[in-house]
Amino acid sequence: MYVCDNLTMRRTADEAAATRKALLHAALEVFAERGFNGASLADITARAGVTRGAAYHHFRDKSALYLSTLSELWDEATGRIWAELEGDAPPADRLRAFLVRFITEMEADPVVRRLLSVTILANEAVPVHDTGMADKRAATKEQTARLTTLFAESGLPLRPGVAPETAALTVISALNGVAITWLMDQSLFSPAAQAPTLAGTIVYGIAGA
């Protein structure tokens, strides 16, 4: 009796998690294609293959789905990328691997590409704009602080006059610049092809390594 109940509960929880994940990925696709205002819950649920009732079970409305999509899928995508900074390799090698992975996935990973498009290129009025901007600022601060700590504690020899925080800001700014430049005109270059050279240039600029 209890075994069956536990199995049923686990299956129900797994199904709910799968539905939520399907909605997040479908929402990202639709928001990237049509923008926030052009997307509807009907479009998103149809893309996900679930009912509108299932969507409302997980998200209060389209705005809540939009914020959750960006927050949760960014966390999932960047978790893999930030993992490149871990390990026992020399600090410059880990930083280079992190940059190569991030720049490569801008183009190679459709989820990262859509996230960048929705986050950077959106120029429409979104009801949750203030919340979204606050989330972006918080994420940038967290990323800058994380890189600052890495540069301060890793032993990576920075160029004279380059403080750890300056190095961190340089990395964040460079990555944002690469993303914006490519998204604005994807015929200019291939991030995946240029990733090793771009990463090496960024590392050389702050550390000369």
TrEMBL record:
<dbReference type="Pfam" id="PF00440">
    <property type="entry name" value="TetR_N"/>
</dbReference>
<keyword id="KW-0804">Transcription</keyword>
<dbReference type="InterPro" id="IPR023772">
    <property type="entry name" value="DNA-bd_HTH_TetR-type_CS"/>
</dbReference>
<feature type="domain" description="HTH tetR-type">
    <location>
        <begin position="17"/>
        <end position="77"/>
    </location>
</feature>
<feature type="DNA-binding region" description="H-T-H motif">
    <location>
        <begin position="40"/>
        <end position="59"/>
    </location>
</feature>
<dbReference type="InterPro" id="IPR001647">
    <property type="entry name" value="HTH_TetR"/>
</dbReference>
<protein>
    <submittedName>
        <fullName>TetR family transcriptional regulator</fullName>
    </submittedName>
</protein>
<keyword id="KW-0238">DNA-binding</keyword>
<dbReference type="InterPro" id="IPR036271">
    <property type="entry name" value="Tet_transcr_reg_TetR-rel_C_sf"/>
</dbReference>
<dbReference type="InterPro" id="IPR009057">
    <property type="entry name" value="Homeodomain-like_sf"/>
</dbReference>
<keyword id="KW-0805">Transcription regulation</keyword>
<dbReference type="GO" id="GO:0003677">
    <property type="term" value="F:DNA binding"/>
</dbReference>
